[in-house]
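Final report, Chapter 2: Outcomes

The project's central promise was a pipeline that accepts a single protein chain and returns its three-dimensional structure in a standardized token representation, suitable for archiving and comparison. That pipeline is now operational. To close this chapter, we reproduce one record exactly as it appears in the project archive, with the input sequence first and the structure output second.
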Amino acid sequence: MFCPKCKYEYIRGVFDCPDCGEKLVETLPVEAEEPFSDESKTVEIFQTSEKSILAMVKAILEDNGIISIISPPIGMRASAIVYQVFVNELDAEKARDLLDGIEESQAESLE
């Protein structure tokens, strides 16, 4: 089951997204348009294992007109799933500046 808004996957038996409250669906619709052109390159700008931080990062980028891609979980870091956030390389510097405080607070919370 997937959340059509957050795009997170949940186990069967869950019917509403615990993060945003949307009704879950069996499959996500195919995106009509790719967020980046074939000529553009994407770069990783952020990693987190916290869904709440991931949602905040996505919102900050969207509010500032930066399209981002959240990777599927890539593995484990300290027994947690790790998500990566990618943006167009032309937006990377601005995105990193916007997220600078979040990275610091995330690092402090891990200590």
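Archive annotation: The two ends are 34 Å apart (CA to CA).
This record, like all others produced under the grant, will remain available to the consortium after the project formally closes.
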